[in-house]
């Protein structure tokens, strides 16, 4: 269980516990959108316009309307309870920016892997990354308009996930939906880190 720290010099004021959560997934899966939808502060974004020079390496098939890409990270914050604050770090989706992931992952409690059923294979690398580093994660299927909908168990099978890895459906544009995803990550990470006995 996570509890805030009470300051004896200031009665009834709780200093919250802060936790770091990564938001990962393939190019165009909705990472920046999810961080922006749920953050209670104006999110920090490091987006740049897609250019002709990037066309050979940025596969926009299925996300043709995408005009920008994250080149470092997105950052946001959400207070889940008076004593629990999450710092959100959205990772870049393209391979050429993955050198940033190790720095971003340092100290993370867990992660969200955003999946787009139109390009499901794009989230394999993120899943492999977190599995290799034993970082708890939840797969959040971003339900894009016009994309086929699949039951959570079908997504789990297609991604070859461990039975205990949560799979949730979400709309990354909606605050409550994004908040539900983050709660799932925290609950799963805390369960995974709890002493077995």
UniProtKB/TrEMBL annotation:
Entry GO MF terms: GTP binding; hydrolase activity
Keyword set, alphabetical order: GTP-binding, Hydrolase, Nucleotide-binding
One Pfam short name: ATP_bind_1
Family, per entry: Belongs to the GPN-loop GTPase family.
Protein name, entry field: ATP/GTP-binding protein
């Amino acid at each position: 269980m996570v509890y805030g720290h009470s300051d004896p010099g200031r009665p009834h004021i709780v200093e919250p516990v802060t936790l770091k959560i990564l938001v990962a997934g393939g190019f165009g899966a909705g990472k920046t959108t999810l961080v922006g939808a749920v953050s209670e502060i104006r999110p920090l974004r490091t987006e740049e316009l897609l250019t002709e020079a990037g066309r050979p390496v940025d596969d926009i098939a299925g996300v043709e309307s995408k005009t920008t890409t994250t080149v470092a990270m997105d950052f946001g914050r959400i207070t889940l309870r008076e004593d629990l604050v999450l710092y959100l770090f959205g990772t870049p989706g393209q391979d050429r920016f993955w050198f940033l992931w190790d720095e971003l992952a340092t100290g993370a409690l867990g992660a969200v892997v955003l999946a787009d059923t139109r390009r499901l294979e794009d989230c394999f690398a993120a899943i492999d990354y977190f599995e290799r580093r034993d970082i708890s994660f939840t797969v959040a299927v971003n339900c894009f308009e016009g994309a086929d909908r699949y039951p959570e168990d079908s997504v789990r099978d297609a991604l070859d996930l461990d039975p205990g890895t949560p799979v949730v459906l979400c709309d990354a544009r909606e605050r409550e939906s994004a908040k539900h995803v983050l709660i799932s990550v925290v609950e799963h990470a805390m369960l995974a880190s709890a002493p077995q006995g």
